């Protein structure tokens, strides 16, 4: 997967200001549709962003709850749900319940649910993992590396970048929890921002299909996501040409709220 310098693109900044839930891959895929690039259940919830042109997952070094060094490359050949979470996040806690139910139902050695927390004290994370592991694998940041950089736009925190040893942004986290789905080829095929119901039958079947030795037998959707008309107009104009209510939501158009 291509890397880029830490920063926020104009498109991402506009979408964030409009509070559009987007989890973008750092290499610039942006949000995408359910496409033919990977096996996808016909009924997969639309909040899952499935990338039409999956790229190689950037390697990520971390430490397991047992204190051993681990990396994503060690898990190639297995489906990895790279789940970013942090302490005092109630939705992160609830999602772990759904992740455990899904992992138990799929029951495949080809699935790894990797819960990575690079924001809190590694010692606390290891203690937490001792009583909450089971089908989940927990990881923390390395003590001697900076793994997270704040993503700020005009002084406002809009998320975080996960960085490598060269300080290159390799993953983006705009909210908690956030999850990247990496297939057995080591390709990032999907993402989800916020709590997901991983225990839903459609999601469970999708993950189960990805773990199969021949995942090509899983049904595929080949339909593009159609942008709402207001967003299409928004993204087709430079930021400085946008109406004032975009920059200042408190301003209302005369005669109503406008075509949002």
SS-based class:
alpha+beta
Mean pLDDT: 77
Number of helical regions: 6
The count of domains is: 1
* First-to-last CA distance: 35 Å
Rounded to the nearest angstrom, the radius of gyration is: 19 Å
Beta content: 15-25%
CATH superfamily: Glutaredoxin
Give the low-pLDDT segments: 1-41, 216-227
Summarize this entry quickly.
With 260 residues, the protein is of the alpha+beta class. The protein has helices at residues 10-17, 90-106, 122-132, 201-211, 229-235, 244-247, and strands at 49-56, 61-64, 69-71, 79-84, 111-117, 136-140, 148-153, 156-163, 169-173, 178-182, 187-193.
Q: What are the main properties of this structure?
A:
22% helix, three-stranded antiparallel beta sheet, 11 strands, 260 residues, globular, Glutaredoxin, eight-stranded mixed beta sheet, 6 helices, alpha+beta
Structure characterization notes:
The structure is a single chain. The chain has 260 residues and is of the alpha+beta class. It has a single domain (10-246), classed as Glutaredoxin, CATH 3.40.30. It has 6 helices and 11 strands. The protein has helices at 10-17, 90-106, 122-132, 201-211, 229-235, 244-247, and strands at residues 49-56, 61-64, 69-71, 79-84, 111-117, 136-140, 148-153, 156-163, 169-173, 178-182, 187-193. The strands form 2 sheets. Strands 1-11-10-4-5-6-2-3 form an 8-stranded mixed sheet. Strand 2 and strand 3 form a beta hairpin. The radius of gyration is 19 Å and the shape is globular. It starts with 9 loop residues before the first helix and ends in a 13-residue tail after the last helix. 33% of the residues are buried. The model is unreliable at 1-41 and 216-227 (pLDDT under 50).
């Amino acid at each position: 997967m291509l890397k880029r310098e830490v920063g926020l693109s104009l498109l991402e900044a506009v979408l964030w200001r409009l509070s559009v839930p987007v989890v973008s891959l750092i290499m610039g895929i942006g949000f995408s549709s359910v496409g033919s690039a990977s096996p996808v259940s016909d009924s997969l919830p639309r909040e899952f962003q499935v990338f039409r042109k999956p790229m190689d997952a950037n390697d990520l070094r971390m430490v397991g709850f047992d204190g051993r060094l681990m990396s994503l490359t060690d898990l190639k050949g297995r489906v990895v749900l790279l789940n970013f979470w942090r302490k005092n996040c109630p939705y992160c806690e609830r999602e772990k319940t759904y992740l455990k139910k899904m992992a138990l139902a799929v029951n495949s050695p080809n699935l790894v649910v990797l819960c990575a927390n690079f924001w809190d004290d590694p010692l606390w994370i290891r203690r937490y993992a001792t009583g909450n592991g089971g089908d989940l694998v927990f990881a923390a940041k390395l003590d001697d590396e900076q793994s997270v950089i704040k993503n700020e736009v005009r002084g406002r925190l809009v998320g975080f970048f996960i960085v490598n040893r060269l300080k290159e942004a390799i993953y983006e986290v705009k909210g908690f929890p956030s999850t990247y789905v990496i297939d057995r080829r080591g390709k990032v095929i999907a993402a989800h921002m916020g709590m997901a119901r991983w225990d839903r039958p459609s999601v469970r079947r999708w993950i189960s299909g990805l773990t199969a030795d021949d995942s090509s037998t899983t049904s595929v959707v080949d339909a593009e996501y159609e942008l709402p008309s207001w967003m299409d107009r928004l993204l087709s104009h430079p930021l400085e040409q946008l109406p004032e209510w975009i920059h200042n939501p408190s301003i209302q158009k005369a005669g109503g709220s406008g075509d949002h």
